[in-house]
Structure formats: structure tokens, C-alpha cells
Write a structure and sequence with these properties.
Chain A: This is Tax1-binding protein 3. Chain A: It is found in: Cell membrane; Cytoplasm; Nucleus. Chain A: GO terms for molecular function: protein kinase binding. Chain A: One of its GO terms (biological process) is Wnt signaling pathway. The complex is a heterodimer of chains A (111) and B (570). Chain A is α+β, with helices and mostly antiparallel strands. Chain A has a single domain, classed as Pdz3 Domain (Roll), CATH 2.30.42.10. Chain A contains three helices and eight strands. In chain A, the strands form two sheets. In chain A, strands 1, 4, 5, 6, 7 and 8 form a six-stranded antiparallel beta sheet that branches. Chain A has a two-stranded antiparallel ribbon with strand order 2-3. In chain A, a hairpin with a 2-residue loop joins strand 2 and strand 3. By secondary structure, chain B is mainly alpha-helical. In chain B, 55% of the residues lie in helices and 6% in strands. Chain B has a five-stranded antiparallel beta sheet with strand order 2-1-5-4-3, with helices on one face. In chain B, helix 9 packs antiparallel against helix 12, helix 10 packs parallel to helix 12 and helix 16 packs antiparallel against helix 19. The chains are: A alpha+beta (111), B mainly alpha (570). Strand 4 of chain A pairs antiparallel with strand 6 of chain B, so a sheet runs across the interface.
Chain lengths: 111, 570
């Protein structure tokens, strides 16, 4: 699913309104959202209520595949953070996937 | 019922085979017979083997029967074993001793030797030949009336062994002295080398004497049913050695009247060396070979399932049996028939159902087997309740025991506070000073009731008489033991050896084995040591061959990293 988030300006920072976890330098087995425990991708762990991410439709447990065209499946945690919080970007476009989407795809493939 | 059994056992204490002769002399199946009978039965070529009593007759073993000769007779004597078993009971009944309790007999014997249990006989294999031991001689001379005929056979065996020993020991001296006595004038003078050789002979003989005293003249632990193969082998060896030396000596030196005295002395020295090496061989075969553990033996008591594991080396089955018995007396908790029965309330329900547990006394098993089949089907429906009953009964019993135990501990603690050791500097009225016995009696009264109740609840009261408790109390007071130390004897059921002698309930064990008992232990061998009430089932397992490999770990190679799971908000 493609989600477009408009950043909110708060003071000196641009806020997106969610938290991420994961990365190739992290321990994937502690990820509560991933189905496959060796998945080192970036996952959304929290979404602040009423923030731009929630407004845009981002949900907890989503795996972020791309940010503005940059691939997020094989990045370190810090790189992911950097890509999401670039100062000169007002809008970030995310490509995310979640389990409900995956299931729907599977079902459509089977039927 | 215990008394006649004890009497029976008492007489069975004396080696079984040796008691058989009065009934079965004709069979002459029993090698413990007087020498003449033995000689008739043996083929002439075996006479030397038979003559070989060990010069070191400390242990019990048979005079010279080798196993092969037994095999010939096995078949025709197999049927005899059954008849022998049948008469065993008769014999013991006819020879009624005055009904002394086992204690007295045991104590007279026990004074002379440490533990005389180990009366065994093989039931399965045909013959059982019996061993004679050196110390049995002294024991038997003090024994009672029926052992008279036993003395002869044992005496004879021991005498033969001693004779051979003496012969072997004196031979070198004879070798040295005979030329001096017979043809002194013709001998060449022999200077310092001879003197050196004399000294060496003297010291070697002394060492041999001390070594054989240390190794062989020990109290036998047990009475083996069959000949101790290694000993017999060694006896043959010694005898052949001595005989061959005498042959050479007679032919070469006596007949030809050799004038070279130095040669004679060297000849004698070589014999002493050979004897020392035989002694070394004896040490290795009899003592060292069994030290390295090769097998693990599991001994399970059939009555209540108590089991232990032991590591032993290469032993024959009979020696392993004796080893197990030695350890049985200090490892296994004492056999308490009263603890085998299920509580009455459970039993009353189960009586109509199955009796699953084996009882201590034999007479009641007949009833259960008779009934159980008939009512199993009918009682199948009621099966469900019995385990419930059992569970609650057990919980109740536990609670009761704990309560009584608490009372006992408190009573004993309190009693011990009344006694204090007299310090040297205190001056007290002489009437107030007590020796340990009186002190024990003084405080016993306060704890007697609690003790009695506790013992009754744990069904230990047959094992502890008031006298024994008093004695133990006196012992503990003398050695400044705390109440807890005094109580350890009563709170847990200890090993059998800790109790009074008559609780050992006789020292006769029967070894039942499918293989000949002089066979070595092998993986998977099972034998049974039987007593009247229960038996010990022993099974063997080989200790596996360990393959150790080496791995070197560099101390600097221990390195670690953090497992991260961070969360950043964007």
C-alpha cells in the first residue's frame, strides 16, 4: 500500500508521528510484528494518535519497504531513521505492507 | 516362627556343602570331603591339582578342583542338587540346637572373624564345591557339636595348604644346607660372592614371608561356593615350580655330588627369585586386576525396589556377589517388612480387587493370588476408588509422622538441656556427679514417650529396644553430641549394618546364577542373591569406552556483542 504522509512541523523538527524498529544491525527475533523472525526489515512499532502518520493511514506493524524511492528492506536502523527525517522533505511517500494485505493477495491468487 | 528359622540359618551358616556329607557321602559330590574320598574320585592326573592347597590359604577356596573335572560330573549330579535342597530343610530340623537366639551364636563367631556371611550355594548349576579357609579352623574348634565332621575336611585342606607353603619356603634353605651336611669336606670354599648370596637369600625370604603374610593371611570375607580359579592356578604354579626345582636339584646336585658350592647357592637364589615373581603374579591377579572399574552393577532389592549402582573391575561372579553384599550392608536401608503393606483402609477395598504389592511374609501371598483372579472382573468397576484412598491415606500418614517427629525433636532438645558436662574447675557434691549411663537414664524418661510414639508411627519399633536407645543416648552424651546428632539414627532408616546383630536376620545368602559362578562378569550378566524374605537382583552393564578428544579454546576468543532492538520515533 502506498501511503503519503505530510509532515507536521513542531518547533524545529519535522514530525511524522510514528516509531520504527528493526534494521539489519538489530536482533530480528525480538520483533513482535514480523511473521518470519529472520526478517530484518523496518517495522512500525507505534503510531501516535492524531499524528500525520495515523491520518495518512499508517498502522502499527506495517513493514516499510520503500521511502521516497529508497529501499528500506536492507538498511540499518540509523540509515532508516535518517531517510525518514530528511530536513528538506515535506512529504514522504512510503510503500508499506502488512499481513492483512498479504493475506488478501494470497487469497486472490488462490481463487 | 523366627526362632526356628534362626536356628536353621544358624546351622546353615556352616558351609552348606560340608554339611551334606552325612547324607550323601556315597555321592561324594561334595569336595569338602576327607582327602581319601577325593582321591578316589579324581583321575590320577589330577592328583597334583588336588594336592595344591594354597600355601597362602587366607581366602576360602576349594582344594584343587578344577572346573573341567566338574563338568564331567555336572550332568549326573544335576539331579542331586534338587534332592539336596530337599534334604536341606530336613537336616536342619533334625539337628536341633538348643533354641538359642541367633545373637549368641553370632557373637561368638563374630568375635573371631569380622563377617561370616557369604554362605552360598549355587542352586542352578549342579555341583557346589566348597571352600576351606584358614580361619575357619580356629572358628570351628570353638563351634558347636555338629561341626565335628566338618573340622576334618577343612582341617585337611588347610593342612595341605600350609604344608605346601612350608615346603616352598624351606626349599631354598634345604638346597643350601644339604651340601654342607652331606659332603662338607669335598666342597670348594666359596668366598665373598657366596656371602653376598646368603644375605640376599635371607632378605628375599624375609620379604617373601612378609609379602605373603600381608597378602594372604587375612580373614576371609566370605565362603565361596566354587574354587577360586586364580588361586588354584597359582597353587599349581607354585607346586610345579618347587617340584621341578627339586628334580633338578636331586639329579644334578645330590646324585653327582657337585663340588661347586657357589653354583648350588646360585641355584637356591634363583628359586627364591622365582618365588618372589610368583608372589608378584599373585598380587597382580588377585588384587590389582579388579581395581580398574569395568562394569557397573545395579543391585535392586526385590521387596521394595531400593537400588544402588556400583562400579567394579574384572571379577568372577562369586566375587562380585560378595562385593555387592559387603556394600549392601552399608548402603541399603534396612529391610522393613512392615513398610511393604498398604494401609489397612486401602487394603480392605483392594482385597476384593487386586493385591498389587508383595507382602513381607510369604503366607499371605497365597490368599491374594487365589482370590485375585476370581474377582478381578467383578471388581474392575471399583478400581477407580482405590487410588484415591491410597492417596489420602498416604497424605494422612505423612502428616501424622511429621507431627510425631516434631514432638520428638522438641522433647529431645528439651531433655538435652538438662545435662551439662562437668567442667574441671567446678566443685560439685559427689552425689550429683553422674557417669554417662546414669545421665542417660536420667533424661531418658522425658523423651521416652515421644520416642516410642514416633517409632511406632514409622514402624521402626522392632529395630530399637529401650536398651539400645539408652545405649545410644549414653554414647551421644559421652561424645558431646547435639540432640540432632542423637536423632539422626531414628529419623531416617539407616543401613542394615547399623542395627543390632539379630536384625541382620542371618548371614546366609544364596547365589542364583545361570552361568557358572567362576565365570567373569560380562555385559548383561544377571544373578540373584537370595534370602528368605527378599532377594537382590544384580545386573551388569559394561562401562562404555570413552573417546576423549581435545579442543583448545583461546582465552582471547571470548567476545560478545549486544543484541539490539531499538525503537526510534520519527
Amino acid at each position: 500500500q502506498r501511503i503519503e504522509i505530510h509532515k507536521l512541523r513542531q518547533g524545529d523538527n519535522l514530525i511524522l508521528g510514528f516509531s520504527i524498529g528493526g534494521g539489519i544491525d538489530q536482533d530480528p527475533t525480538q520483533n513482535p510484528f514480523s511473521e518470519d523472525k529472520t526478517d530484518k526489515g523496518i517495522y512500525v512499532t507505534r503510531v501516535t494518535v492524531g499524528g500525520p502518520a495515523e491520518v495518512a493511514g499508517l498502522q502499527v506493524g506495517d513493514k516499510i519497504m520503500q521511502v521516497n524511492g529508497w529501499d528500506m528492506t536492507m538498511v540499518t536502523h540509523d540509515q532508516a531513521r535518517k531517510r525518514l527525517t530528511k530536513r528538506n522533505e515535506e512529504v514522504v511517500r512510503l510503500l508499506v505492507t502488512r499481513q492483512s494485505l498479504q493475506k488478501a493477495v494470497q487469497q486472490s491468487m488462490m481463487s | 516362627k523366627i526362632e526356628p528359622l534362626k536356628v536353621t540359618v544358624d546351622f546353615l551358616k556352616v558351609p552348606l556343602g560340608l554339611k551334606k556329607p552325612p547324607l550323601k557321602e556315597a555321592l561324594a559330590a561334595l569336595p569338602g570331603k576327607p582327602k581319601s574320598q577325593i582321591l578316589e574320585r579324581h583321575k590320577p592326573r589330577r592328583s597334583d591339582a588336588m594336592d595344591n592347597e594354597s600355601q597362602y590359604s587366607g581366602y576360602s577356596y576349594k582344594s584343587g578342583h578344577s572346573r573341567s573335572s566338574r563338568k564331567h560330573r555336572d550332568r549326573r549330579e544335576r539331579h542331586r542338587s534338587k534332592s539336596r535342597d530337599g534334604t536341606r530343610g530336613d537336616k536342619s530340623v533334625t539337628i536341633q540346637a538348643p533354641g538359642e537366639p541367633l545373637l549368641d551364636n553370632g557373637s561368638t563367631r563374630g568375635d573371631e572373624r569380622d563377617d561370616n556371611w557369604g554362605e552360598t550355594t549355587t542352586v542352578v548349576t549342579g555341583t557346589s564345591e566348597h571352600s576351606i579357609s584358614h580361619d575357619d579352623l580356629t572358628r570351628i574348634t570353638k563351634d558347636m557339636e555338629d561341626s565335628a565332621h566338618l573340622d576334618c575336611s577343612r582341617h585337611l585342606g588347610v593342612a595341605l595348604g600350609g604344608a605346601l607353603a612350608l615346603l616352598a619356603f624351606l626349599t631354598p634353605l634345604a638346597f643350601l644346607l644339604l651340601p654342607q651336611l652331606l659332603w662338607r669336606e669335598e666342597l670348594e670354599p666359596c668366598g665373598t660372592p657366596c656371602e653376598g648370596l646368603f644375605i640376599s637369600v635371607a632378605f628375599k625370604l624375609l620379604i617373601l614371608l612378609l609379602g605373603s603374610w600381608a597378602l594372604f593371611f587375612r580373614r576371609p570375607k566370605a565362603f565361596f561356593p566354587r574354587v577360586f580359579v586364580f588361586r588354584a592356578l597359582l597353587m599349581v604354579l607354585v607346586f610345579l615350580l618347587v617340584v621341578s626345582y627339586w628334580l633338578f636339584y636331586g639329579v644334578r646336585i645330590l646324585d653327582s655330588r657337585d663340588r661347586n658350592y657357589r653354583g648350588v647357592v646360585q641355584f637356591a637364589v634363583s628359586l627364591v627369585d622365582a618365588l618372589l615373581f610368583v608372589h608378584y603374579l599373585a598380587v597382580v591377579l588377585l588384587e590389582l586386576r579388579q581395581l580398574q572399574p569395568q562394569f557397573t552393577l545395579k543391585a535392586v532389592r526385590s521387596a521394595d525396589g531400593a537400588s544402588r549402582f556400583y562400579n567394579v573391575g574384572h571379577l568372577s561372579i562369586q566375587r562380585a556377589a560378595v562385593w555387592i553384599l559387603e556394600n549392601y550392608y552399608h548402603d541399603f536401608p534396612v529391610y522393613n517388612p512392615a513398610l511393604l503393606n498398604l494401609p489397612k483402609s486401602v487394603l480392605s477395598k483392594k482385597m476384593s480387587g487386586f493385591k498389587v504389592y508383595s507382602l513381607g511374609e510369604e503366607n499371605s501371598t497365597n490368599n491374594s493370588t487365589g482370590q485375585s483372579r476370581a474377582v478381578i472382573a467383578a471388581a474392575a468397576r471399583r478400581r477407580d476408588n482405590s487410588h484415591n484412598e491410597f492417596y489420602y491415606e498416604e497424605a494422612e500418614h505423612e502428616r501424622r509422622v511429621r507431627k510425631r517427629r516434631a514432638r520428638l525433636v522438641v522433647a529431645v532438645e528439651e531433655a538435652f538441656t538438662h545435662i551439662k558436662r562437668l567442667q574441671e574447675e567446678e566443685q560439685k557434691n559427689p552425689r550429683e556427679i553422674m557417669d554417662p549411663r546414669e545421665a542417660a537414664q536420667a533424661i531418658f524418661a522425658s523423651m521416652a514417650r515421644a520416642m516410642q510414639k514416633y517409632l511406632r508411627t514409622t514402624k521402626q519399633q522392632p529395630y530399637h529396644t529401650m536398651e539400645s536407645i539408652l545405649q545410644h543416648l549414653e554414647f551421644c552424651i559421652t561424645h558431646d553430641m547435639t540432640p540432632k546428632a542423637f536423632l539422626e539414627r531414628y529419623l531416617t532408616a539407616g543401613p542394615t549394618i547399623q542395627y543390632h546383630k539379630d536384625r541382620w536376620l542371618a548371614k546366609q545368602w544364596t547365589l542364583v546364577s545361570e552361568e557358572p559362578v567362576t565365570n567373569g562378569l560380562k555385559d548383561g550378566v544377571v544373578f540373584v542373591l537370595k534370602r528368605q524374605d527378599f532377594s537382590l537382583v544384580v545386573s551388569t552393564k559394561k562401562i562404555p569406552f570413552f573417546k576423549l578428544s581435545e579442543e583448545f579454546v583461546d582465552p582471547k576468543s571470548h567476545k560478545f556483542i549486544m543484541r539490539l532492538q531499538s525503537e526510534t520515533s520519527v
